[in-house]
Amino acid sequence: MSDDGPMHAQSQEAGHELSDSGISGRSTTDGPQDAPEQKHHHRRVSSFRNRRSTLSGTQQELWERRWPEIGAEARDAAGRPLTRDIAQWFGRRAPVVLEIGCGTGVSTLAMAVEEPHLDVVAVEVYRRGLAQLLGAIDRNDVTNIRLIRGDGVDVLEHIFGTASLTGVRIFFPDPWPKARHHKRRLLQPETVALIADRLVPGGVLHAATDHAEYAEHIAEVGDAEPRLRRVADTAAGALPISVRRPETKYEGKGLQAGRDIAELVWVRTHGMTE
């Protein structure tokens, strides 16, 4: 969950502990979140933390009404990964942006509204955060967002193919600051390599974090991927997607506390080793 604050555990505004990233990637500070219902049979270490929560009556009604239309699970009840025709789901063919760990979707919604020519697939583990984003989509009549509940790497592996994404956004993923937990971090070399494969030439990987050591790790991993080239802020205007994020409530608190926000942007090169 990523768009609502210092991404440390999966989405703060959603009630996570501060993390946006999710495969999820964040944790929640304002309350426990619901644990993923899917059973994962792969051996990869997940980057999200289990949380339990319930939806309010209004959220549950909205969920039952809108989720079948614009929401989907990454895996079925037996734990099998699901596939989906993205163009059919949106009812059009347009450039697609994947946001991993959308949290409560503050950034997701704002950026989608500013870029109606893009289709945005937002992935989150925690249902409460998705319910809040679902409500915002419904109130604002936004048509270019779809939601997936589950593991972001599952989505990259099973729903999107090579050169199918114009952008991947990962805002404030859980930094898992303790050394023994670093293996849980979402942005590892293998995941960045998978993202590079899924991006079209010229496509964008945009990551943000307020954790200094994790920023160094992300920069090192991204720069080491031969299919990605780092982009300076001055070049951002030429990118196919916006890299301007709205400041969220929790991000603002982090800035007031003196935490710097690292914005890391790469583009997919045209060749394998350019």
TrEMBL record:
Binding site for substrate: 178, 210, 248-251
Taxonomic placement: Bacteria, Bacillati, Actinomycetota, Actinomycetes, Mycobacteriales
CDD domains: AdoMet_MTases (cd02440)
Enzyme Commission designation: 2.1.1.33
Pathway this chain belongs to: tRNA modification; N(7)-methylguanine-tRNA biosynthesis
Protein name: tRNA (guanine-N(7)-)-methyltransferase
Domain of life according to the entry: Bacteria
NCBIfam families, alphabetized: tRNA (guanosine(46)-N7)-methyltransferase TrmB
A GO cellular-component term linked to this record: tRNA methyltransferase complex
Region annotated Disordered, chain positions: 1-60
Ranges of biased composition (kind: Polar residues): 21-31
Matching PROSITE patterns: SAM_MT_TRMB
Record key words, sorted: Methyltransferase, S-adenosyl-L-methionine, Transferase, tRNA processing
Transmembrane segments: none
Protein species of origin: Mycolicibacterium cosmeticum
Amino acids binding S-adenosyl-L-methionine: 99, 124, 151, 174
The family this protein is said to belong to: Belongs to the class I-like SAM-binding methyltransferase superfamily. TrmB family.
SUPFAM superfamilies: S-adenosyl-L-methionine-dependent methyltransferases
